[in-house]
Design a protein that fits this description.
Length: about 45
């Protein structure tokens, strides 16, 4: 299950990067938030 979370995170990051509309780092925050939320939910 953990592998799927990381795979989804990397997919989200690639999609954001491929749009070339990303700001230096802030446009990646939603993908990171989603990753951390999923990881947190695994351990609750």
């Amino acid at each position: 299950m953990f592998e799927n979370v990381i795979e989804q995170y990397l997919t989200d990051m690639a999609e954001i990067r491929n749009t070339r509309a990303n700001a230096p780092e802030t446009s990646f925050y939603p993908a990171l938030e989603k990753l951390l939320t999923h990881i947190g939910n695994l351990y609750l």
